[in-house]
């Protein structure tokens, strides 16, 4: 069971279990306790870009309002909240939301991932160590092994599991009672979840891509936290190139900060943003080198399609799964390509983005 990735975060504020006193015991620090009042190094500052409470969380207003009702109702009744399923593309804040749930409830967060739970014993070890009210976060929950998933059914409904001891005719089932806990599952592919698992979640939230105003707030907040000055129009420029994803917005901000430190005064203005993102191959629509390579292969190499994803992957020197999972979702959402039964087809917007005139009859022309 040593391969189970498990971390405990004591996220409660001054009224929660951790209180407001920074930990002084080195052994406590080694166990991974996070204290929001501790002094931050540069690495710690990057970590604190995550909001700690629903009030600090930017964007996703519908999810925030719904989750606030779930958590407030549970606190008023003094019970553990229902299990929560968070679905949506990577980088939209699913892990952050799990941390916020633990923070709002004043409990600890245990973290693992679906691929790490290969055996029922791995899951049983985690579940048996949970304290009452703890939040168990399983990232990429759709990738759990089937035996572990089936054990999770009973744990979610009845807060108990059956541990099988021995093999063959002499095997014995030992019931093990669990402390009431809240499971938070995150998935980027909700369609791959089995029906029985999906139905056991009391609240399901779909995380949506961010619009530019919300991402501008994310960039401005992050700039303040990491201690860099940024002009309002520069924050808007970074936000508009972030593909609707806060994780990308924060990453671009850090790279622009590097450029401003090396080639300027450290203050981020619009000129610094544009110059930095040219260096890092991010164009005005947020497309990077690989995105443009896919469009170039599709248009210049195959006349705009239709082309199969495997052929495109060979043309750009990447795995088919990378093209399909990393590039294609944004290109489809941006209206650059469409998926057909015969393959991928470039739209008129893709032709124009590469500075080419689309042929007559092109989709979107």
At CATH level 2, the architecture of the largest domain is 3-Layer(aba) Sandwich
Contiguous uncertain segments of 5+ residues: 1-43
CATH class of the largest domain: Alpha Beta
State the secondary-structure class. Answer: alpha/beta
CATH superfamily of the largest domain: P-loop containing nucleotide triphosphate hydrolases
Strand order across the biggest sheet? 1-3-4-7-2-8
Radius of gyration: 24 Å
Q: What is the number of helical segments per DSSP (H or I, 4+ residues)?
A: 15
- The helix/strand series, from N terminus to C terminus, equals EHHHEHEHEHEEEHEHHHHHHHEEH
What is the CA–CA distance across the termini? 57 Å
Shape: globular
How many β-strands, per DSSP? 10
Mean pLDDT across all amino acids: 80
Helix content: 40-55%
Instruction: Describe the sheet with the most strands.
Output: 6 strands, mixed
Domain module count: 3
């Amino acid at each position: 069971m040593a391969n189970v990735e498990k971390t405990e975060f004591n996220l409660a504020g001054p009224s929660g279990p951790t209180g407001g006193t920074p930990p002084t015991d080195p052994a406590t620090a080694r166990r991974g306790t996070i204290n929001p009042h501790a002094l931050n190094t540069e690495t710690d500052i990057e970590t604190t870009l995550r909001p700690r409470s629903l009030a600090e969380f930017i964007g996703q207003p519908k999810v925030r309002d719904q989750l606030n009702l779930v958590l407030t109702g549970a606190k008023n009744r003094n019970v553990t909240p229902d299990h929560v399923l968070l679905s949506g593309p990577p980088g939209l804040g699913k892990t952050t939301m799990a941390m916020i749930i633990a923070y709002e409830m004043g409990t600890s967060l245990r973290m693992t991932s679906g691929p790490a739970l290969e055996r029922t014993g791995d899951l049983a070890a985690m579940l048996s160590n949970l304290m009452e009210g703890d939040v168990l976060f399983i990232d990429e929950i759709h990738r759990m092994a089937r035996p572990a998933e089936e054990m999770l059914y009973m744990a979610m409904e009845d807060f108990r599991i059956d541990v099988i001891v021995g093999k063959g005719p002499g095997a014995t089932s030992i019931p093990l009672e669990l402390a009431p806990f809240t499971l938070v599952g995150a998935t980027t592919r909700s369609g791959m979840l089995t029906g029985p698992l999906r139905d056991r979640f009391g609240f399901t939230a779909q995380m949506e891509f961010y619009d530019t105003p919300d991402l501008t707030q994310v960039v401005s907040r992050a700039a303040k936290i990491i201690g860099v000055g940024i002009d309002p129009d520069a924050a808007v420029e970074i936000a508009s190139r972030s593909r609707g994803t806060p994780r990308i917005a924060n990453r671009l901000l850090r790279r622009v900060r590097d450029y401003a430190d090396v080639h300027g005064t450290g203050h981020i203005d619009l000129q610094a943003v544009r110059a930095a993102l040219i260096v890092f191959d991010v164009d005005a629509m947020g497309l990077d080198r690989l995105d443009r390579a896919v469009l170039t292969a599709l248009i210049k190499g195959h006349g705009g399609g239709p082309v199969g994803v495997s052929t495109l992957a060979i043309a750009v020197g990447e795995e088919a799964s990378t093209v399909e999972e990393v590039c294609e979702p944004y290109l489809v959402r941006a209206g650059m390509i469409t998926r057909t039964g015969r393959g991928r087809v470039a739209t008129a917007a893709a032709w124009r983005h590469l500075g080419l005139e689309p042929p007559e009859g092109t989709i979107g022309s």
